[in-house]
């Protein structure tokens, strides 16, 4: 896990401290602009697509697209269409900026704001609406499923020189609840349960261990082996803004 981050979502998410985050078959001809996964405020699409991109609405979940797909302007999938090939010509990716965007690793995850029997209603370029077919090659996950199936999560940080983690670990899913302290070092949490805007998390006691025996494994494979585990709640979104990096790969 210390070799790749996506935030996605971030997928953050989805690079961060010590470039701990990425593996995969790099396609050198596709080089999207990168940025830190630090939380920012973006109110419109500025023409740049990063790994982790703000959207006007986080919606009901995420749609995970295949390497090649078609998107449409209408819910009946009969209007104007656009072919997208992540491993083909970079031109097919022009003006298609998804919530999680890293075609080098086959990652284009779209914030889904609705669905019909035929199609998913998704966002690109912050607030532009497109439609993807509800076919087997497209995978839809609610935010609960998306977060709980991740390899791990961590808090985004402020953009100033302090790089302070955003939010506190609390004993209950409430901004008024007492806080918990976590061990010093680079943090990583395992998402145990999503409850609205909050996630029940357990601190990954192995993340800062030299020669981590569980390196590259999903956190649910080993998190119960932590002695005296620190368990609490993190707010993962507020005012439609994502407050965490989500690790989608080891």
From TrEMBL:
Domain of life of the native organism: Bacteria
Protein name per Swiss-Prot or TrEMBL: SH3b domain-containing protein
């Amino acid at each position: 896990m210390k070799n790749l981050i996506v935030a996605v979502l971030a997928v953050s998410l989805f690079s961060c401290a010590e470039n701990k985050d990425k593996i995969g078959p790099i396609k050198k001809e596709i080089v999207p602009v990168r940025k830190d996964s630090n939380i920012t405020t973006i109110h419109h699409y500025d023409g740049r697509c990063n790994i982790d991109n703000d959207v006007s609405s986080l919606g009901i979940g995420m749609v995970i697209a295949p390497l090649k797909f078609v998107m449409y302007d209408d819910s009946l999938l009969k209007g104007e269409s656009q072919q997208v090939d992540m491993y083909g010509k970079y031109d097919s990716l022009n003006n298609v900026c998804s919530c999680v965007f890293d075609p080098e690793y086959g990652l284009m995850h779209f914030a889904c704001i609705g669905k019909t029997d035929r199609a998913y209603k998704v966002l690109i370029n912050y607030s532009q609406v497109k439609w993807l077919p509800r076919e087997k090659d497209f995978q839809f996950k609610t935010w609960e499923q998306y977060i709980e199936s991740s390899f791990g999560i961590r808090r985004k940080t402020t953009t100033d020189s302090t790089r302070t983690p955003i939010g506190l670990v609390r004993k209950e899913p409430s901004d008024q609840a007492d806080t918990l302290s976590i061990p010093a070092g680079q943090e990583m949490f395992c998402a145990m349960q999503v409850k609205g805007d909050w996630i029940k998390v357990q601190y990954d006691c192995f993340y800062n261990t030299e020669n981590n025996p569980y390196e590259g494994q999903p956190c649910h494979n080993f998190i119960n082996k932590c002695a005296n585990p620190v368990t609490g709640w993190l707010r993962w979104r507020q005012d439609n803004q994502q407050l965490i990096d989500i690790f989608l790969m080891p």
